[in-house]
Each structure stands twice: as C-alpha cells, then as structure tokens.
Specification:
The structure holds two protein chains of two kinds. Chain A is α/β, with parallel strands linked by helices. Chain A has 15 helices and eleven strands. In chain A, strands 1-3-2-4-6-5-10-11-9-7-8 form an eleven-stranded mixed sheet, sandwiched between helices. The two termini of chain A are about 15 Å apart. By secondary structure, chain B is of the alpha+beta class. Classes of the chains: A alpha/beta, B alpha+beta. Chains A and B meet through helix 9 and helix 10 of A and loops of B.
C-alpha cells in the first residue's frame, strides 16, 4: 500500500477512502496484539473520517493524501482521543484540541487510525519504556523496533498504514526508521509546527514522517510543513517544495562521508555507509571524507540539555488538573505520590538529571557548559557545510537489537542515538534511508544530513540510494 | 516612627502591575477581572500538554511604554522559565524575564525632588488564584483548595527600584507616583485593592556610612497605607534587633494589616531554587527601533509635567492649591480643568472643584463631561449658582447626566431676584435687633447667625459669600 497510489486512486474514484481505511484496519487487527503497535485505535472515527473524504472527493476536491491511513505517535494531541505520550501519568487524558499537524493531515484527506506506542515521553530508543508495554519489530518480533517512535515505525513496517508521524528529539524518528527498514525524516527545527506535540525537550523536538519510500515521506512532509502562528519557533518562510525535486539527483553535489558518524558502528553498518558513498559517487556526486571532532561531544551535551528542558516540561504533571492523581494528605504529598506512581524509571532518571543540571551552583558546570558545546557544534557543522552540501553517516550503530538487551544499561541504550543527536542540537535536517541489510537479514539505515532547510536535497540524494537498492 | 540619629532605613520596591490588554500574555483569552471562575481559559493558559505560548504584541507595547516613561532603555530581550511547584501555576513554571529584561536602567523623580533609580521593568505572566478552605486560608493545613485560572497568563510588568528609598513616606510617594505613571501610560488601572498593582518592599536598616544591613522582603501590602506602616514597623523591628545585639535574618515576611506587625513567611534557607533557563518555546524579542520610537511618541504627558502645567495656571500657588493640583492629576481629571479654564473659569476655582467634586468614583462619571463641568463652573462664577448649588449640580450630572442649566432648574436653583436678599436681611435685622447690634460692634461670630437664617429662608439658594458681603456692607 503506497500512499501516493492510494491517494491517486481515491481521487480518481477508483477506490473509496472507506475501502482503503477498512482494509487498513483489518491489517491492524491481524497483528496489533502480537506487536503492540497502537495503544489506542479509533476505528469508528477513522471510518467516519474516510466517508467524509469520499464526500469531499465526490464534491470535486483533490486532497493530496486522499484516503491515506496514517498512524500518529501518541504524543500528538487529537481532540477527544486518548493521548498519553506512553505514560501512565496521562492515562485517560483526552485533549480538547488538535495538534497543528493533525489538522493539516486531515485537511489533506489523510485518515488517522489511532495512536501509536512510544517510549514514555519519547525517552528511550527501543519503545520499551512505554507504560503500555513494548512494541515488537514487525520484521523480527523478538527484536525492538527502535524508539522512541517505535509504534509509528512498526505500523508502517507491518503494512498497517503506508505513512506515520513520529517525533525526533535525538533520533527518535531516524533510528526506528533504520531498525524497521523505512525512510524517516527529522526536518529542520521549525519547519513543522510543534503545536500539540507533547514536549520532551522543546529546543530539540521536531515532528516528521515515516514511510516505506522517499516519495511518500516527501509528500507527507510537504503537507505538514510550513509556518504556524501558534508556534513562534516555526520558521516564517514558506515551506520548501520537496516532491518536485525528488529526481534532481546528486550530480555535481559534494558529499562528505563523516568519520564521527560511523565511528563505533558495527562493521556491517560501516560497510553499508561505504557502499552508499560509492553509489552517490556513481550518480555523479563528489565524495570526500570529512572529520568533525565536535560531534563526539554531542551525546554528553544532549544528556544535559534534553533532561534539563524535560525536567521543566514535565513539571505540569502534578495531579492537580488532569491525568493521574494519587491522593495524599496535602498538595505536596499528592504531587509526590502522583509523580512517583505516574512516571517510569527512565523519565524519573531524566527529571533528576535535568533538575540537577539546572540547579544553583551546578548550572554553569553542566547546563551552561552544554549550551557552549551546542554552539560549538553548530559552528562545526557550518564549517563542514561550507565544504560539502551533504554529510553521510550511519543512522544507528547496529541493526535492531533484541528486546531487553539494553534495558538494564541506560548508557548502552543512550549510545543508540550517538549518530543522530548532533542534528537535533544543531537544529538542522537529516533523514535515514534503508540501504542494505545486516545480521539476520535485518535492515540497515544510512543517514543523510544537511544544513537548515536542505530537505529537498536530502530527499533527492535518498532517492538515488533507494533506486540503487531497487525500490 | 523614626530611627535614632545616624541610622536609616533602606528600601527597594518591587511593583507588579497587570497590563490593560484585551487578551492574555501568551494566548487569546480575555484579560478581564471578575468573570466566573475558569471561564477565561484555553489549552495555553491552562498549560495543557502540547500547548505553546505566543507573545501578545500589545503587552510588549505597554511594557515598553512603562519603560520609556521611567527613562529606561528598551533592548532586545529573552524569556526565561522560573520553575517551582504551585497548584495555581498550570505549567509549574512561570514565564518571566531574567538576565535580559525588556527595560533596564531608568529613574523616577518624586514630587519632593528626590530621584529613585529603576533597575528593570520586565514582562512576565501572572498565576491563577487559589482559595484555601480551612486551615486559616493558607495552603498548608487547608481542607480543600480551589483554583481559578482566569488570571493565569494575564500580562504583568514587574518594576524593580534601586535601593534608593530612605523612608516609609518616600516609599509611599514612590508607589503613588509610579501608580500615576502606570495610569498615564494606559498600561494599568493602578487598582491596588483589585490586585492589579501589587507592591513588595525590601527593607533593611544601617548606620549611615556603613554597608547596608541584611534585608527582608515584605509581602501582602495591599494599599499605600499598608506599605508605609509595614516599612515603619519593619525598620523599628530590625533596629531593635540589631541594637540588642541580634542579627537580621534574610527572609520573606508577611504584613498583617489588622495587627500592624510583620511575621516570617519563609527564610532564605527555605527559598526555592528556581532553576531559571531560557524559555525554548519563545524566540528572542527584538523590538524594531521604529516601533520603540512610535511607542515613545505615543506617550502622553506624565504626572510631573501635568502638575507643572496646572500649577502654572495659578499665580503664586499656595501649598493647599498645589495639593489640589496633585489630586487633579492623581484623579486624571486634568481635561476637566483645561476645559473650564478655556471657557474663562478661574483656574483656582476649576482646580478646587475638580479635586473635590470629581474624587471618589473618579472613573465612574458617565454623565459628567468636561464641557458640562466647565458650563457649571461658569454659572457659579457668574453668580447664577452658589457654590453649594454648583456642587449639587455636578453631583447630579455625574449620576444622571443632562445639561447644567436644566439640572439647576430641576433642582429648584432659580436665580434670586435682585434686591430679594437685601429685603430678607432687612427683615432679619428687624426681628433680631440685639444680635445685629452685637454684630455691628464687631462680634463676627454673629455673621454665622444671620447667614444661617438667610440660607434656611432661601433653602440654600443664596450664596453664603454674597450674604456675608451684604451683611458687612450694611454694618458699614
């Protein structure tokens, strides 16, 4: 099921959105219990929405995503639908409003089936920290789908929906895309409105698409991108055209194979990146090796900045207004009891880290220092992009790992994002595209990175790699 | 009331003022006092997951107006999060400004000629309002707490003075002058009783010439009078402590208006670590120079200039007249005086009537326009109305409107026929020859005896001053 084909067929009246969505729901029903992809399914709402799309088409409208079923990460607010961010503390909460991306998808004729599982508050790289149980990788259910947007990735990889939305704070779209054999995009910070995205780390969070192919991902991003007056950090410029540039190729482009973005990866991953470099060269790009030593500081800076922002963003879950409340003899005791029961271990760990990093007497040594590193990283990327147009590296150090393999070792889990984190710190664009397979025939993703608003070029390069592996 | 020779109190004030915007600081909810609880809320001011703040342009303009009126520098600024848990703060952090406020450096000149430095005047959002049931009205020990989020996200400007104030009276004068400026800029209605202007005072004592003492912060100062009393009390408390060999502990203290004392709310050791960091959901606020200049150009005259202007209408004004000028400016009724003077009313009369008759519900005079005020005073000046009658006409106009001549007629204030008063006085002299004799011998107290009777006979229509003149003329 390809989103472009579905939309074209629905627009042409060859199939109805209702048939497409009903079929999609059947595929969800077939594997959701096994994989734990959707934490909330709104079958009735989806069928009703599909009927409305059919009416719009009958009335002569030609929506870009007519009848395309989508999965939404459970940190995107949908009016009246349970939205938990994978956390027990938001159990039962139903937002009174839609996220901007949800509105834009609906306006484009897409039909949301429900909410996809995720690591609690997007803190994790395997979808195992969800309060609603882990999601399994559809390609090998003994393995993780990656995370934090593991449910969104699994929904597409299992063929339940052609496209899905996730959010990427340190790699949470690109890493699961790599582990599930999908295209996953972390857009330039500000390209997509964050209004209605439950915040993890506000200065790093971006919403982006998952799809089986580059063209589908580009189309979805075109639909959701663009300035939103409700998000002052959204870029004021009009969203760039993407679909029209998919076949621009890479002839004459300068690609930098970045040493720090393959260091420490499994040999099969390094080999895949090397083959990708060769493929781009064959397509006419000039490829050179580059080194950006500052990228090695990314993980440390990220694990101060993201938890610091999270410690503040998650303060509001205090039991006073919505979500879980565990009573106590006074307000403070109620706050403590609610947060003790409502948050999982990883979330608590990061709240503590972040609170510490911002505390009087420690701010300069930790949070302040991390901000300086962030500035140095932005400058280092800028120097690299003065020499090359695009950087190439690995997305994740390995193929999908077994469930439980890293849950007892937070640092090993954190290292899953070592190649993806620098882009978030710099606020720039990157995507992961499947390129070959490794251990157990599992997919490997390679990562293409570019400066702010370089998505069209990244998609064109990804399209070259996709064609190379015959998709 | 005062410290011994060689000692002085040092005061810095933090004034919070709500801004008179139509909507809140970061969302489109109405900014209005007194609505049903929790009816002026939305995902943003309730801090719902996923919501984001969008800065209110008008609030920025009013904040700049306050800064410019205080001679501060308007600069590019950033917002920070001030993190602490409290049920009436929906996000459990307050969006405020920290190391880069919108206004920094400035001063305020007081009527007595002293100058108080302004350190900063920054933008921030207000919290909701808690009501604690049981437990003495405080959150600890309350059986139940109710929260109204209508106020959550209302725009505030916090104006922080330098520690330049040296007496409780000066602190009061500063707050009063600042209040006048806030009203003059249109930024605030300055109502302390509704909480739209709130004052906290940092108070310390020291021996002149020595370093400042440890300061305590006074809260719950709900009127200018409380401010003055609390500072006086606190200065004496601190002096007594130091004089008896004790030390002042840095702490926040609560002013109890009824008992006239301050007491410890929380000590420095218990103070929160607010973990300030830059608000990632808002971009840097960079006001274009042209915008700043437009706000500057739009500022009307400030109270000091207005007082000078009104005082210049008087020849060698007396202290009482200058007080009246101050009252006119405080009430914001300069335009009534201007209108009256423009129509030929003596400035002294116009200022006195404006200061005394337009007080009280100064802003609630639906029927009384500057034109009607001027016309009434002209009738008085022409002798058509006595002073008493003119005041009655003004009071009626304020409540019900109408034109002064018509109102005077309805109130029965007909002009007395020429000679009528003389006839009345002749009659009274005949009825009370003894009293008249004593008056003629110089017993002026008896003037009151005769004027009172004239007033009674004319049901207040006679002008007391005219009657007195007639009596003196007859005495020769």
């Amino acid at each position: 099921m390809n989103a472009l084909e579905v939309a074209a067929s629905v627009r042409a009246g060859e199939t109805s959105a209702l048939e497409v969505v009903a079929e999609s729901l059947e595929r969800v029903a077939a594997r959701n219990e096994e994989l734990n992809v959707f934490v909330h399914l709104d079958a009735e709402g989806a069928l009703a929405a599909a009927r409305r799309v059919d009416e719009r088409v009958a009335a002569g409208e030609t929506p870009a995503l007519a009848g395309v079923p989508v999965a939404l990460k459970d940190n995107l607010c949908v009016r009246g639908q349970p939205t938990t961010a994978g956390s027990r503390i938001l159990a039962g909460w139903r937002p009174p409003y839609d996220a901007t991306v949800v509105e834009r998808l609906a306006a484009a004729g897409a039909v949301a089936l429900g909410k996809a599982n995720m690591d609690e508050f997007a803190m994790g790289s395997s979808t195992e920290t969800s309060a609603y149980g882990p999601t399994r990788n559809p390609l090998d259910p003994t393995r993780v789908p990656g995370g934090s947007s593991g449910g969104s990735a699994a929904a597409v990889a299992a063929g339940m929906v052609p496209v899905a939305l996730g959010s990427d704070t340190g790699g949470s779209i690109r890493q699961p895309a790599a582990l599930c054999g999908l295209v996953g995009v972390k857009p330039t910070y500000g390209l997509v409105s964050r209004y209605g995205l439950i915040a993890f780390a506000s200065s790093l969070d971006q919403i982006g698409p998952f799809a089986a192919t580059v063209a589908e991902a580009a189309l979805v991003l075109e639909v959701i991108a663009g300035h939103d007056p409700l998000d002052t950090t959204s870029l004021p410029e009009p969203a760039p055209a993407l679909v029209g540039h998919l076949d621009d190729g890479v002839a004459g482009r300068r690609v930098g194979l970045c040493r720090e973005l393959v260091e420490g990866a499994d040999p099969e991953v390094v080999a895949a990146v090397q083959r990708a470099a060769e493929a781009l060269a064959r397509a006419g790009a000039s490829v050179e090796e580059v080194s950006i030593p500052e990228l090695r500081l990314g993980l440390s800076a990220y694990y101060l900045i993201a938890p610091a922002e999270a410690s503040s963003n998650l303060a509001r879950y205090d039991g006073v207004r919505y979500g879980l409340r565990v009573d106590g003899p006074d307000v403070e005791a109620m706050n403590v009891a609610t947060r003790t029961v409502g948050f999982g271990d990883e979330v608590k760990r990061r709240i503590m880290l972040g609170t510490y990093a911002l505390s009087a007497g420690y701010y300069d040594a930790y949070y302040g220092q991390a901000l300086k590193v962030r500035t140095r990283m932005i400058e280092a990327f800028a120097r690299a992009y003065a020499r090359v147009d695009t950087l190439l590296g690995a997305t994740a150090p390995s193929v999908a790992f077994a469930l439980g393999a890293k849950t007892q070792d937070p640092l090993a889990m954190y290292l899953s994002d070592v190649f993806t984190i620098p882009t978030n710190l710099a606020g720039e664009a990157a995507l992961s595209v499947p390129f070959g397979t490794g251990e157990g025939g599992l997919p490997i993703g390679v990562q293409l990175l570019g400066p702010a608003r370089s998505e069209a070029r990244l998609f064109a390069a990804a399209r070259v790699l996709e064609a190379e592996v015959g998709r | 009331m005062s410290l011994p020779e060689g000692w002085e109190v040092v005061v810095g004030l933090e004034v919070h003022t709500e801004l008179r915007t139509a909507t809140k600081l970061f969302c489109g909810c109405a900014n209005a006092f007194g609505a049903e609880p929790n009816t002026q809320t939305c995902p943003v001011c309730l801090g719902l997951p996923g919501s984001l703040p969008v800065l209110n342009r008008r609030a920025v303009e009013l904040a700049m107006a306050i800064g410019l009126a205080l001679h501060a520098t308007v600069s590019s600024s950033t917002f920070h999060r001030k993190n602490y848990f409290y049920p009436d703060m929906p996000k459990d952090f307050q969006i405020s400004q920290y190391d880069r406020p919108i206004n920094a450096g400035g001063y305020l000149d007081l009527p007595d000629g002293s100058r108080v430095g302004i350190e900063r005047a920054h933008l921030e959002e207000d919290t909701g309002k808690s009501t604690h049931l049981g437990g003495g009205g405080r959150i600890h020990g309350a059986e139940r707490s109710l929260v109204d989020y209508n106020r959550s996200g209302v725009p505030l400007v916090e104006i922080v003075s330098a520690p330049d104030i040296r007496s409780a009276a000066q602190a009061r004068a500063y707050a009063a002058e600042l209040r006048g400026i806030l009203i003059a800029t249109g930024a605030s209605d300055g109502r302390m009783e509704e909480g739209s202007m709130r004052v906290d005072a940092n108070v310390s004592v020291h021996r002149v010439g020595e370093p400042f003492g440890t300061r305590c912060e006074m809260k719950n100062l709900n009127s200018l009078r409380s401010l003055q009393r609390a500072i006086d009390y606190e200065a004496e408390r601190q002096y007594a402590l130091v004089a008896s060999g004790g030390v002042v502990r840095q702490e926040t203290r609560h002013w109890d208006e009824d008992r006239g004392v301050t007491s410890t709310m929380r000590s420095k050791e218990e103070a929160d670590d607010y973990r300030y960091f830059q608000e990632p959901d808002l971009v840097e606020l960079v006001p274009e120079p042209a915008w700043v200049e437009a706000v500057r150009a739009g500022l009307g005259p400030m109270p000091a200039a207005r007082r000078a202007h009104l005082a210049a209408l008087l020849d060698e004004p007396t202290p009482a007249q200058l007080d009246a000028v101050g009252t006119v400016v405080d009430l914001g009724v300069d335009d009534f005086v201007e209108a009256a003077v423009a129509q030929g009313v003596e400035a002294d009369r116009a200022i006195a009537r404006a200061a005394n008759e337009l007080a009280g519900e100064a802003r609630e005079r639906p029927g009384l326009t500057p034109g009607a005020f001027a016309a009434t005073l002209r009738l008085e000046q022409a002798g058509e109305l006595s002073a008493t009658q003119a005041k009655a006409v003004l009071a009626t106009l304020a409540l019900a409107g109408g034109d002064p001549v018509g109102v005077a007629r309805e109130l029965g204030f007909e002009r007395m026929a020429a000679g009528e008063l003389e006839g009345l006085i002749d009659g009274l002299i005949g009825e009370h020859p003894d009293e008249w004799g004593r008056f003629c011998e110089g017993d002026d107290k008896l003037a009151q005896f005769f004027t009172g009777r004239v007033m009674r006979a004319t049901r207040g229509q006679a002008d007391g001053k005219v009657v007195l003149d007639l009596l003196r003329a007859r005495r020769g």
